[in-house]
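Onboarding guide, step 5: your first structure request.
Type a short instruction followed by the sequence, for example:

Predict the 3D structure of this protein.
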Amino acid sequence: MIYFLAGGLVLAVLAWMRRSGPRLKHREWRLLSGGLALAAFVASAYVAIRGAWSPAVILFLLGLWLASTTRGPTVSTQAPQPQSMAETQARQLLGVGPQAGRTEILAAYGRLIKLAHPDKGGTDGLAAQINAARDCLLSKLGPVG
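The system replies with C-alpha cells like these:
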C-alpha cells in the first residue's frame, strides 16, 4: 500500500512541476524526465525481482509516462508553409516596382531563387517566402494571355 501512495505522490509532484510549479526549460525537463524514467525502470525491475508485482507494474507505468514526456515535439522536415503575403511585402521582397509586369517579376524571382534555394546553400524558409511573393504578384496580374 505504501508503494501506491509513494507512486501517487511522485506523479502529483511531477504533474505540478510540469504545469504550475517551477518552470523548467524544455531541455531541463527532458533531462530530468529521462533520469527519473530510468530510475523508475530500475526500481521496477528491482521490486519485481523481489516478488512485489503490483508496485513493479506501477513503477513501470510511471517510467513509461516519464519516458513519453522526455520526447519533445517532433520537428518537421518539410519547408514551413508561408502565410499569405501582402502585395507590398511581395514587391519589396522581390525588388520590383508597382508597375512591374509578368516578365520582370519572373526575372526577379529567378535571380533571387538561384541565391536562396536550399540546394544552393539557402534556407527553406527564405525560398518559401520568395515563392509566396512570386505567387502573390502573379495572381494579382491574372491569367497568362
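Each response can be followed by summary notes, for example: The CA atoms of residues 26 and 66 lie 14 Å apart.
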